[in-house]
Amino acid sequence: MELTMKQDYDVKDFFKYLGYPSGDQPYWSENLRTLSVYCRGDAANLRALLEPTPFELADDRFVVQIADFGNATPGPFYDSGVVIPVRYKDQLGVNYYFEYEDQPWSVAFGREVWGYPKHFGEIDLTDSEAAVRGTVTRAGRPVFGISMTPQQGYSNDAWADMALYPHLQVHALPEANGPGFKAFEIVSRDTSKDFVLKRKTFGPAEVELSSVLSVNGVQLKVVEVLGGEYSVGDYACTVENGISTVLDDLLADGREEPAR
Fold first, then answer.
1. Residue 88 and residue 178: Cα distance in Å, rounded?
2. Burial of 110 (0-12, 13-18, 19+ CB in 10 A)
3. Peptide bond connecting 166 to the previous residue in cis, omega within 30 degrees of 0
């Protein structure tokens, strides 16, 4: 058998094999349902969690979320996670620090393309006039649970000033044959400019966090639950706003210097 190289091979064709789109492909999800529970944490605890990252803590409040992308054009999926306000140099934003999704392709898509730290999990979100509840489990083990009771006239003053965009993430590609990284970029992404809110309610909330939400022996702590909100709206990841922007490249030449 004669061995030959493929001629004029287009590397973008590899996305067909990977099973998820490239980072410049827009997508939409009508009637996106999102339950967000706002918490006050311990600043020292949050700083300890952020210690391995290039980010600085910007607020002692954080958000625990579950979102139903059941109408997403690439395919239905659930998203969930813990969002922490951070600063990178002079840029304020939030970092998805813990994140879980229920489809292998969506885990790989968000993680490999934009640097979201996604893991696979089983996710549920139910809503009624009486309550909105959501749970995340992994291999039968609880990760977190959140709930909110919609209440007319409930105030969101305790978190109304929190901006949940842009997302600031680390897009890192480890070396295939060494201990360092091939790429280590700080990226910013803001889809809020194209989101169309249809309705939103507020109310008292509850949260249960498990020890799964730990890094380097540090477990996420809740000092106070501030309340919750449940929203429904049309989500869009457009070319104009959904594609990430590289803010910084910590490996200017694309390769980490070896330790000496």
1. 27
2. buried
3. yes
> CB neighbours (10 Å) of residue 255?
14
> Residue with structure tokens 């803590």?
57
By DSSP bridging, strand 91-101 and strand 118-120 are parallel
Q: Which residues contact 116 (CB under 8 A, 6 or more apart)?
A: 96, 99, 110, 167, 169
Confidence of residue 259 (pLDDT cuts 50, 70, 90): very low
In this prediction the pTM is 0.92
pLDDT in tens, 47-88: 999 999 999 999 999 999 999 999 999 999 999 999 999 999
User: Which of 109, 108, 102 lies closest to 125 in space, CA to CA?
Assistant: 102
